[in-house]
Amino acid sequence: MMDRDWELISVLYQEKNITKASAKLYISQPAVTKRLQMIESKLGVQIVERGRKGVHFTPEGEYLVKCAEEMRARMREIMSNLSSMTKEVKGVIKIGASNNFARKTLPKILSEYQERYPDVKFEISTGWSSEIFKLLCNKEIEVAFIRGEYKWSQGEKLLFQEKLFAINSEKIKIEDLPKFKKIEYNCDIKLKSILDNWWRENFSDHSLKGLMVDRSDTCKEMVMQGLGFALVPSTILKENDKLFKLELLDKNGEFLKRNTKMLYYENFKETNLGKTFLEIVDAIDFKN
């Protein structure tokens, strides 16, 4: 089987829909169906069952999805190794990044890298840090930029730390927070865990329920309008924000912080792509 066949299986498994898979692969729906039938015929197994709500993978299909991940990772490794042997820096780097990092920081890294190595392309995946870490563990990406602590035995680099704050439209004391409505927002499970643990360590009462919004920057706007307080990371705050800010402290009196790290496979840094990419990241001052 060719690499594009493994890619078809992977994308179809992600989308569970032939129409969506064909759009993502930039090929026609009939071409996807025909290619899938050819793969099934060659292997002598049924990979998917078709239904009104999309496709459902058979046990044989589920097995091939795992094989596809391994084969595509192996092919990327082969291509990177061949590139290293010729001393050329070209190919594709598969990167995963948390949503906020992808919006605010990743473009700078990619811009600086591509300025020096224009023959390199990128495939970017974004999402919650927990989702990006899963992609890394499944070898669907080679390097991940995530926030929070994850158990990882291979390469990692701490990029920066951000303090966590309680913010309000008016001056407020930490001990009075339970008396006010708290504005919640969707966030990664690791950040929620840090903030929930801090609250339990400091208060016996639950916070008063206020608004629930989709994003942290929306939450900040609601706080600025006096609709409640919120617990947020420093990355969403600006010096000219008209907010009262209180730095959160842990039980040892230290500033409560969240780490942002780059995680990668050790064999990635042995390739020309990996070596040059890590050098670019090392040279960037993430504090400014």
Task: Provide keyphrases for this structure.
Arc Repressor Mutant, subunit A, alpha/beta, 288 residues, single chain, two-stranded antiparallel ribbon
- Helices, by number, come to 10
Question: Helix proportion of residues, in percent?
Answer: 40-55%
Compressed to H and E, one letter per element, the order equals HHHEEHEHHEHEEEHEHEEEH
CATH architecture of the domain at 162-258: 3-Layer(aba) Sandwich
Just give the CATH class of the domain at 162-258.
Answer: Alpha Beta
Intertermini distance? 48 Å
CATH topology of the domain at 162-258: D-Maltodextrin-Binding Protein, domain 2
Beta-strand content:
15-25%
Radius of gyration (CA) equals 23 Å
Mean pLDDT: 90
DSSP E strands, number: 11
Unreliable stretches: none
Largest sheet: 7 strands, mixed
What characteristic shape results from the CA principal axes? globular
| Helix-strand category | alpha/beta
Family: Belongs to the LysR transcriptional regulatory family.
Protein name: Transcriptional regulator, LysR family
Pfam families: HTH_1 (PF00126), LysR_substrate (PF03466)
GO molecular function: DNA-binding transcription factor activity; transcription cis-regulatory region binding
